[in-house]
Amino acid sequence: xxxxxxxxxxxxxxxxxxxxxxxxxxxxxxxxxxxxxxxxxxxxxxxxxxxxxxxxxxxxxxxxxxxxxxxxxxxxxxxxxxxxxxxxxxxxxxxxxxxxxxxxxxxxxxxxxxxxxxxxxxxxxxxxxxxxxxxxxxxxxxxxxxxxxxxxxxxxxxxxxxxxxxxxxxxxxxxxxxxxxxxxxxxxxxxxxxxxxxxxxxxxxxxxxxxxxxxxxxxxxxxxxxxxxxxxxxxxxxxxxxxxxxxxxxxxxxxxxxxxxxxxxxxxxxxxx
Length: 273
Fold this sequence. Notes:
By secondary structure, the protein is of the alpha/beta class.
């Protein structure tokens, strides 16, 4: 049994999950968090399914050892390939990136034409595509998917509004302009930071931030299970987050500023193997 004062655990293959953490802080600012970034083994997107499942198991076991009340799989690759592994070993609720985003996309679309962008592993896994077809039931939705692998390094370099980013985004997203989609799922933790660029290219398309939808879903889930921490007149300026990385990268403080807008201190380095 878990207590409402226990923390929410969020793990990602690296630092992209900070965009998910940002949404959780926005919707559940009074909660306490543990963030685990497997920076020593990032990226997961080009690893085999067997390796991804092994990494996911180790990240999950670490968060379980911290006695969290909820595990959030911020990594879209793990959500696509290994969510069943996380659920099988977790003794607390697990929230991935796929189902909340799928439900929001089906609710949002008007013409039943939905696009998905993500890493190669996420797109080739067919997890989003299959979930959309499964949830839509009647099967009359058109689904278009595209991998955009260069978006991640561009974001981590801080090239959010750089001409190179806009050039590459135009190349990646060109097919969506002609496909007639009205809803696009951002199937990677880094992509929400490129929302402005994407919206300039696809101005009439509604963007679905998977991290935001996961935060909203988790808010309802914790409330239903009576695990939501009481705000008690919450007024803290700085969210309560413990940061753990498997490798302390030189530019981590700058990346935190890009994603969260505040400086981070006391990052702890851990080994998962």
